[in-house]
Write a structure and sequence with these properties.
The protein contains six helices and seven strands. The protein is of the alpha/beta class.
């Protein structure tokens, strides 16, 4: 067992927790929504200082894990973005490309799976429904409120299971 595998986990969402998606919200305001353009613009997300600082603070006592509703096809861009921000390396959990369940279900499923073998110290996420469900399931949650909320993104997360 490695030293890091004994540490508790700090689990971080990406969009509107670590990455500012405001510049790409316009792709969700169209009908139909342009998901390809929305995700293609992700590498240009600005980092959110509050979230980035919390990752670095958490990494002093925890192993950092990233849990995103982004589809698996975005993995390379996501890993490159995390590295460009100087964030700690950590396993990145993404939804399957065809998984359209709301984030509150996909993320809670992954949290429960992680919790079978590791202590989860905290989940940091901006999605109110994800946070409520995780809290009800017994997880410690910090709701990321440092990005401008997007009604379009929230609706997409809940109804379309896209991020």
């Amino acid at each position: 067992m490695t030293e890091s595998s004994r540490l508790p986990l700090a689990v971080f969402d990406l969009d509107n927790t670590l990455a500012d998606t405001a510049h790409r919200q316009r792709f969700l305001e169209r009908r139909p929504r342009d998901w390809d353009a929305f995700f293609a613009a992700a590498p240009r997300d600005a980092p959110l200082a509050e979230g980035i600082a919390l990752v670095h603070e958490s990494a002093r006592e925890c192993e950092v894990v990233y849990l995103t509703g982004r589809p698996e096809r975005c993995r390379r861009d996501t890993l490159d973005w995390l590295a460009a921000q100087g964030l700690p390396e950590g396993k990145v959990h993404m939804r399957g490309n065809a998984d359209r369940r709301p984030a509150r279900y996909t993320k809670l499923e992954i949290l429960r799976r992680l919790a079978r073998t590791r202590e989860i110290r905290v989940l940091v996420d901006d999605d109110e429904l994800v946070c409520e469900d995780a809290r009800r399931a017994g997880f410690t949650v910090v709701r990321a409120r440092w990005a401008a909320p997007s009604g379009e993104l929230r609706a997409a997360q809940e109804r379309e299971g896209r991020t």
